[in-house]
Amino acid sequence: MLLNMNCTRLLMEDLHLPCKKQALYLLGKVLVRKLEDGTILKGKIVETECYLGGEDKASHSFNGRRTMANEPMYMPAGTIYVYMTYGMYYCLNISSVEPGAAVLLRALDPLQGEDTMRTFRAKKNKRGTQIDKSSKLCNGPSKMCIALDITKENSNKINLSDPKNESIWLEDHPDFSEEDFKVVSSARIGINNAGEWTSKPLRFYILGNESVSKRDKARERILLEDSKD
DNA sequence: GCGGAGATGTACT
DNA sequence: GTACATCTCCGCA
Question: What is this structure's pTM?
Fold first, then answer.
């Protein structure tokens, strides 16, 4: 069971990291969402992706592109960048120290408020289908946003470490330390025409966690063989 | 469990 | 007009 007193809110200096380091640092941390009615939703971050900007063709800020829409990628580390994709879904990113770089949160392992997450997910379904398994509530970037009611309107440009913001933040948890899990790195999901950047290992996930959206079994095998000795 | 089709809005060519 | 950092549904195994 998760006890509040064991959790500490992450501060600006905790998130003041370059993109790849931040993506790894965020694994095992807890994303907390407080709704208007006071309901608390929590989930452990189990999957992240880097979007580096500059050279990275898959990034919204490729080649220094800077628009109204991707402005949060250029804001101080820890700023939330929410954008809409496929006309229907939101994805949540967290900016890192380099201007134009951000980490996409791809999946959470639910820790608190599962029933509320189920309600949000069912509401979004055409037929109101209920999701039974908790590992299927947030196993994808847009599923995560639906389950936690994260939208561009309520979360874009908010800094996670800003103490004035009471709706969304990050926490550390002593039970989930980096030594307790192995991290698999693999190619990013849904990237197709980004040249060499299509296959770069810029996605990271916790080995063996059920809420990971897509496993890379070949990479897992290599990791396990390497760590034998 | 897996693969393909379709839904659908926005930003930028 | 086009290209999406996706998800659900449905058919088939």
Answer: 0.94
